[in-house]
Amino acid sequence: MAESITLVARTGKALRLAQGQEIRVVNTHGRQVVDTWAFAAGDMAEFMSMEHSRVHMGRVNPVQGSVLLSNRRRAMLTIAEDTSGGVHDTLLAACDVHRYRMLGATGYHRNCTDNLAEALAELSLVPPETPSPLNLFQNSAIHPGGELEIVPPIAPPGSHVTLRAEMDLVIVFSACPQDMAPTNGADMMPKDAELQIA
Amino acid sequence: MAESITLVARTGKALRLAQGQEIRVVNTHGRQVVDTWAFAAGDMAEFMSMEHSRVHMGRVNPVQGSVLLSNRRRAMLTIAEDTSGGVHDTLLAACDVHRYRMLGATGYHRNCTDNLAEALAELSLVPPETPSPLNLFQNSAIHPGGELEIVPPIAPPGSHVTLRAEMDLVIVFSACPQDMAPTNGADMMPKDAELQIA
Q: Closest Cα partner for A172 from A9, A50, A2, A11?
């Protein structure tokens, strides 16, 4: 019996997963980026690290079968299945109030950094900092000269990524609220996603 | 009158820089990688962040003129001058005991993560974690399929990078002790570098 949770546009959600448990992240409407973090159960100082994962994968971006490591190089998550087209980002920081201010936003703008903290607070947890996220479905084009460009995602509506927990952990998702860059598609409109736990 | 400090092979060094001050990192023997971190003076929780810098630079790797940001998106360091050929890495985690154990090392192997902590301890400072370093002179080839390959650096003997502090900060360098991969050249032999403060 699968539990299904709507990850509401512009918000975050934290969940506990036991070792071996799988969670499916469905891109319900397509082209929505979902920032993803993982923390070891019982020790928030050990968290999924993009820089350690890149060394281990020998890749810039994870593909089906890739194993993502913690900052202590222990396996945390495996990309068990990917029907999204396989385009994900490990290079870009979570958006935050500073990023939106620099883009010209006035007043408060929802952001993935605050979503991480808010979602963890619902489990009475505090992040030690904001680790660099696994940006599921995010399309960052790396050009031959080293230029990095944020372009619309390719993930079709209803496509998904299934993540398997390789240790007991807390996983956190944020449906990215970016509406001032084409992060979430050319229409720059953040949308819901769906989380399905087996 | 420039002060010159030898960054001894396999070790680290932490220094305080005032806003506007410049430091030259000389690749004395060529092809030696120097892991580099920066922390805001008086607040170790604010540190140079590769993931925030990549967004700001719109690049994977910094070039002359690039500004590297903190995790609060404030300017920390500018690449004021670069005579090394302009190949540096922002993608790979600092080496650590886990990395060397996975490569087959037995017993303790010096590493950049411990060098960071040791160097800061000389200033009675403690890093909040090990931020992803700016790996000066490191040559990480990104192939079109997303594969990442560690290949020998191109920085010639005597070439240098000059970094300008954009705020009062603590800067930390580690002459990478990697001798089990071609990080520091095909001879896999860690070497000294030189730090020159104007």
A: A11
Residues of A in contact with B128 (CB under 8 A): 128-129
Q: Does the predicted interface ipTM exceed a cut of 0.85?
A: yes
Q: Minimal CA–CA distance to B15: which of B177, B195, B135?
A: B195
Structure-token pair, residue A104:
């010209």
* Whether the predicted pLDDT of A1 surpasses 80: no
Give the strands of the sheet with B159-165, arranged side by side: B3-7, B193-197, B22-27, B159-165, B75-82, B67-69
A69-110 pLDDT per residue, tens: 999 999 999 999 999 999 999 999 999 999 999 999 999 999
Are A15 and A171 in contact by the 8 Å Cβ rule? The answer is yes
Which of B9, B18, B24, B23 is closest to B42 using CA atoms?
B18
Check CB contact under 8 Å for B146 and A63.
yes
pTM to 2 decimals?
A: 0.97
Interior CA angle at A24 toward A18 and A25, to 5°?
120
Q: Which of A43, A73, A151 to mutate to test the interface with B (most CBs of B within 10 A)?
A: A73
Residue type for A58, please?
G
B99, B110 Cβ separation under 8 angstroms: no
For residue B153, give both structure tokens.
């650096």
